[in-house]
Amino acid sequence: MIFTLPKLSYAFNALEPYIDAQTMEIHYTKHHQTYVNNLNKALETHPELEIIDLKSLLANLNSLPSDIQTAVKNNAGGHYNHSFFWDVMTEEKNTKPSEKLNAALISTFGSFEDFKSEFTKAAMGRFGSGWAWLILDEKQKLAVASTANQDCPISEEKTPLLALDVWEHAYYLKYQNRRNEYIENWWNVVNWDKVNSLFSEDIN
Ligand code: MN
């Protein structure tokens, strides 16, 4: 199985002014493409592996040959996390959490604002490179999490619902060291329709 860069559903400039076109283009065509290429390169060395899909690869890192575990963790993670990230952003204005998701956010975090501040804290508190997440944990409960590097919640049996890339490559051109401003602006492009549907798929 050869992995490929997924098609973006919006133009590089669609998320302006919150995420600038140049950052989007470099992030997608260079950074994301490199994870895809390096994932394929690592898997090429083990043609005997039967790869079903990206998710199963990430869920079963420990069963991979040890010489490619790290490369697959980093690059399958990089491929999955970025594909997911593009999908939870949109140029559509006015998407919002469904009633069901909003109720769950309130019951878990106290209020929508409390959820946002906990997520922001996770994104600000990630030292170095990584991601902030809204996930469903093993017990199907909402939680905020952060992962280092390209580590993916799927490898810890968690279901991602929302992700924010806090690697410097995601914001440096426009925001330089101002990660807080990037995070604050990013809320304007969250695709709540997508988050709602991921939440409904998993919670019945
Ligand atoms: Mn990135």
UniProtKB/TrEMBL annotation:
Residues covered by the Manganese/iron superoxide dismutase C-terminal domain: 97-197
Any Pfam family the entry gives: Sod_Fe_N
The family this protein is said to belong to: Belongs to the iron/manganese superoxide dismutase family.
UniProt keyword annotations, A-Z: Metal-binding, Oxidoreductase
Domain spans labelled Manganese/iron superoxide dismutase N-terminal: 3-89
Annotated InterPro entries: Mn/Fe_SOD, Mn/Fe_SOD_BS, Mn/Fe_SOD_C, Mn/Fe_SOD_N, Mn/Fe_SOD_N_sf, SOD_C_sf
Binding-site residues, Mn(2+): H27, H82, D165, H169
Protein name: Superoxide dismutase
Family annotation (PANTHER family): 37S RIBOSOMAL PROTEIN S26, MITOCHONDRIAL, SMALL RIBOSOMAL SUBUNIT PROTEIN MS42
Catalyses which reaction(s): 2 superoxide + 2 H(+) = H2O2 + O2
GO cellular component: cytoplasm
Class in the EC hierarchy, top level: oxidoreductase
Keyword Metal-binding included in the entry's annotation: yes
EC number, UniProt record: 1.15.1.1
Molecular function per GO: metal ion binding; superoxide dismutase activity
Free-text function comment from the UniProt entry: Destroys radicals which are normally produced within the cells and which are toxic to biological systems.
